[in-house]
Amino acid sequence: MAEYAPRISRRTLLIGGGAGAGLLLAWSLWPRRYAPNLRTGPGEHLFNAFLKIASDGRVIVAVPQVELGQGVWTTLPQILADELGAAWETIAVEPAPPGPFCANQLIAEERAVGPESGFLDGVRRWRAREVAARDAAMVTGGSTSVRAFEQVMREAGAGARALLMKAAAARWNVPWESLDTAGGFVVGDAGKLRFGELAEAAAAEELPDVLLMRGGVDNRLAGQALTRLDLPSKVDGSARFAGDVRLADMLFASVRSAPPGGSLLRVDRDAAKRVPGVARLFDSPQWVAALATDWWAADRALRAMNPAWRVAAEPSVAGIEAAFSQALEEDDGERLFERGDLAAAFAGGDVVRGHYFVGPAANAPLETLTATVRLSGDLLEIWAPVQAPGIARDAAARVAGLPEANVTVYPMLVGGGYGRKFEVRAIEQAVVLAMKARRPVQVVWSRAEETAADTLRPPARGMLTARLGSGGLVAGWRTRIAAPDVRPQLERRLGSDILDGLADPVAGAAPPYGIPAVAVDYSAAEVPIERGLWRSGAHAYTTFFSESFVDELSRLAGLDPLSFRMQMLGDNPRLARCLQTAATMGQWDGGQPGSAMGLALLAAFGSYIATVMEVEIGSDQRVRVRRAVSAVDCGRVVNPNVVRQQIEGGLIFGIAAASANPIDFAHGRPTPRGFGDLAFPGLARSPEVTVELIDSDEAPGGVTELAVPTAAPAMANALFALTGRRLRKLPLVIGG
Question: What's the mean pLDDT in 549-568?
Answer without folding.
Answer: 97
